Amino acid sequence: MIRSIPMRAMLMAGVLLGGTLAPASAQADDADIYDLMVPVVQGVRQRARQLSLENRRLEFDLDTYIRANTLTPSEERELRRRERVLRALSDPTVTEIRSGSTLNDLLQDAQILRSRGARVEATVWPSHVLRRVNVTAAGSPGDAGILKDGRLPWPALLRDAAFDGARREIDRLITRAVSEVSERDADAETLGRLQRALSRLDGRLTLMAREQGDRAAWSPTEYMTAKDFIRRADQAVLLLEQPNAEEQLALARDLQAGTAAELVAYMTTHGLQFAPAVSGDERAYMTAYQALADYDTRLRGKMNMELRSTEDSTRRAVGTDGYTGSSGAARAKKAKAAL
């Protein structure tokens, strides 16, 4: 009888927990066994409920922690933008400046600071600088800056005599296409011939590089510059196909601003951004970078001064007027988050 108690106890627990009928032999359990198992089963059920509640609480706490410590997509984008601005203000490479990416990072930051009310004086720069700086409409399929003079600014490698024929043909077609755009839409045949001429030039350059290999008279940098120029010229053809091509060319051609502040205002009004430099633009891009970096630094300094002023006002207001103090704290927090 003693050996059979554990088995009967287990069967009784199965009845109480599962609600199913046990075998007939187990239904004849003694009253003392039943009385013994009832509190055990009740304790198991209560413990199971407690564990379930604890698990739910832990899951809730974990989810709350993750949400509180995970950046939203917009916060992550803003963090990346600020990192790019800090790099632009510290030590960008010449390549980053010539590509226009550093200038665009500073432009965007200045636009944001100006939208928040910051205004400072900017240093006047030489009038000839902007003639060598390329801009294009944001989201444009091509680079208007490369066509602003009505002709292509060929890099050194493509000015070689080996490319004279292709270069003259492309120059002639570019002049015709730009002229057609100024009068009406560019002719599809002209643009098609232009694209094919650029494709042939690219193929010839690639073939020469493959044939000459290490014996080539040009450097790898010159080769990559030439390839990139052909790519940009091909994209410029796409721009000439757009209905507003003449407007984009005019904005790039008539870029006028005496200071970085005026340039930022002009580009903001017309939805422009910086395009990469071409051969001969390097010094102008460095001058533009220095002016924009100085202007953006001054704007940031202005915002910091306003933030400190707001915090001082908040400290003076706290304790004298609860509503005013709360409002001042909110303004200080908002201003701090803006930087």
Short description:
The chain is mainly α and 339 residues long.
Written account of the structure:
The chain is an all-alpha fold. The protein has 3 domains: 5-69; 75-133 and 255-339, no CATH class; 141-253, no CATH class. The chain contains 12 helices and 2 strands; from the N terminus they run H-H-H-H-H-E-H-H-H-H-H-E-H-H. The protein has a two-stranded antiparallel ribbon. It is elongated and about 110 Å long. The termini are far apart. The model is unreliable at 1-5 and 320-329 (pLDDT under 50).
Spell out the helices and strands N to C.
HHHHHEHHHHHEHH
The helical percent reads 55-70%
Indicate how many domains the architecture comprises: 3
User: Helical segment tally?
Assistant: 12
Principal-axis shape: elongated
Terminal CA distance reads: 82 Å
Main pleated-sheet profile = 2 strands, antiparallel
Query: What percentage of the residues does DSSP assign to strands (E)?
Result: under 5%
Calculate the mean pLDDT score and round it. 82
Rg: 36 Å
Low-confidence stretches: 1-5, 320-329
